[in-house]
Design a protein that fits this description.
Layout (H helix, E strand, L loop, with lengths): L1 E11 L2 E7 L7 H13 L21 E7 L7 E9 L4 E3 L5 H4 L2 H7 L9 E8 L5 E7 L23 E6 L17 E3 L2 E7 L3 E6 L11 H5 L2 H17 L12 E6 L7 E6 L10 H11 L5 H5 L8 E6 L2 E12 L2 E11 L1 E12 L1
Length: 358
């Protein structure tokens, strides 16, 4: 005997995950998480291969979105993101995912949770994990979600219809402040770092301080045990400084090695999420790193090649680049990031029932 639960699988940006209507899952968190782990890993909770479930055996493909109509008058939809921690049979809700968010409105339309417009459909999505809100606009000609188009997202093959995501209220969304340590730079293990939270808690480090170029492949960095040990030591110490507590079993903060741009961007990055080097860079991770560029004296500010009059920032990563358009207000001695706009794409991959072992 197995239990059938309605689901959809969608790609959002350079990630993909299972999407559920909250009404189809238990309200109890422990029961809900058991179902999610069974859907992703089947009988093999903690299986690195996720061979008995729908998980893809990487952090980018072991993601879940739970969607509901919002009770917040400022939003249309609530989006709870769950990251399945591969190999541990655990679920983390301490972060969110901007790539998966790009598919939230397409899912809601496909599921009949919101009505589609004749040309485009815009909805405000409350990010339950952080409390932030994102304005998401998708193409819906004739009231149907359009997935085909010419928008290109590095790290994703082919092109698709653009999904416009304007992030609001990102500053300190998890840590309570843009600079959660109250410092532009801290020194941990003798290394200068910038700890920042503009949507994703991140620690920014100059690759040169680790005797590497910052242009190495993810595979080379993943095989550098000495480097990873140093980065993890810094991460564990940065967690309490960033008001995140003990982060041993958490997927935040993200650790971002930076170097001068190599391909016409503003900054080159290699991001660990948190122990494996990302093939690209997460959406809100990119937003946080890009924000640090505008903060005088930060590690990113000192390395970046930035035209200060231009709030459009191109962040280089292993498989291309990621562009962010900021709206910034400068108030006396402070900087306020009012809005961060990014273009993503999404595609519906499957829908039906996922079968949960009893």
């Amino acid at each position: 005997m197995q239990t059938a639960i309605p689901y959809m699988q969608l790609r959002g940006g350079s990630s993909k995950g299972l999407f559920f209507n909250a009404a189809d899952l238990p309200a109890n968190e422990e029961e809900r998480n058991k179902i999610i782990l069974a859907a992703m890993e089947g009988n093999g909770a903690g299986d690195l291969r996720q061979i008995d479930g729908l998980g893809g055996a990487t952090s980018l493909t072991s993601k879940v979105a739970i969607i509901s109509k919002s009770t917040n008058p400022a939003a249309d939809l609530d989006y709870l993101f769950l990251q399945v921690v591969i190999g541990k049979g655990q679920i983390s809700t301490t972060q969110t995912c901007g790539n998966i968010l790009a598919a939230v409105v397409p899912f809601a339309i496909e599921a009949g949770m919101i009505a589609a417009g004749d040309a485009t459909t815009a909805a405000k999505v409350k990010i339950v994990n952080t409390g932030g809100i994102c304005e998401v606009t998708v193409q819906t000609p004739g009231g149907v979600v359009n997935y085909a188009g010419n928008a290109k997202v590095d790290g994703v093959p082919g092109t698709a219809a653009p999904v416009l995501c304007n992030y609001l209220e990102t500053q300190g969304s998890t840590c309570g402040a843009l600079l959660p340590t109250s410092n532009v730079k801290d020194i941990i293990d003798g290394i200068e770092v910038t700890c920042i939270d503009n949507g994703m808690p991140s620690v920014i480090l100059n690759a040169a301080d680790f005797n590497i170029t910052g242009y190495e492949t993810p595979e080379a960095l993943n095989n550098n045990a000495t480097l990873k040990k140093k980065i993890e030591s810094i991460r564990l110490q940065a967690g309490p400084l960033m008001k995140l507590g003990n982060v041993t079993d958490k997927t935040i903060p993200k650790m971002c090695l930076i170097a001068p741009p190599a391909n016409g961007g503003v900054l080159n990055t290699r991001t660990f999420i948190p122990h494996v080097c990302h093939e690209a860079i997460g959406v809100l991770g990119a937003v946080s790193v890009a924000a640090a560029i505008f903060i005088t004296g930060s590690v990113a500010n000192e390395v970046a090649a930035l035209q200060t009059t231009n709030h459009l920032v191109s962040i280089e990563h292993p498989t291309g680049e990621f562009s962010i358009q900021f709206e910034i207000n400068y108030r006396e001695d402070s900087i306020v990031f009012e809005k961060a706009g990014v273009i993503r794409t999404a595609r519906l991959l499957s829908k039906g029932f996922v079968y949960i072992p009893v």
